[in-house]
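Lecture notes, unit on protein representations.

Consider one protein chain, 198 amino acids long.
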Amino acid sequence: MSSNAIRPLVIVGAFALSLLIGLAGMFLVMGGGGRNIAAPAAIGGPFQLTDQTGAVVTEKSLEGRPTLIFFGFTHCPDVCPTSLFEISEVLRAMGKDADGVNAYFISVDPERDNPATMKDYLSSFDPHLKGLTGDPEVLAKVLTEYRVYAKKVPLKDGDYTMDHTALVYLMDRNGRFVAPFNLKRTPEEAASDLKKYL
């Protein structure tokens, strides 16, 4: 296997290992050594956001289908459109099975990403993709629940960009986090993997 093929596996493995270590630490700290307290959920939680059509989407919307979630913003120059294109290719490769998958693009830039902006932006991608946004304080809570890093970075012209976590989250049919979803393979391979969670 080439070093280029191994690199995504190393990144995913490192993320999974750090998540497990974090969970173990949180369990011990919050559980007083593990006495009679369940471990907290590591990724995800309750939310109420608005999609590009104005419809309300909550954590309950994740239930019953596997879900792909990507956090980004519509003014993103490269990472976001590339990832959304790759997700679109996976959904295309799934054929009719794509109807059984949730795919969400959650904004980290509520200042610019209103539902109308999200709708226009997502018109370039697979129609299964829904863009979610909301008030800054609501989105900040969602970012915390999903352990997403996002920070506004000023640009020289007075504008700004956003640094942010660029993982695709795979949630199972119960809305629970499974693992980062690997897009660095053929759409057909990724689609076959996703179908296992239907």
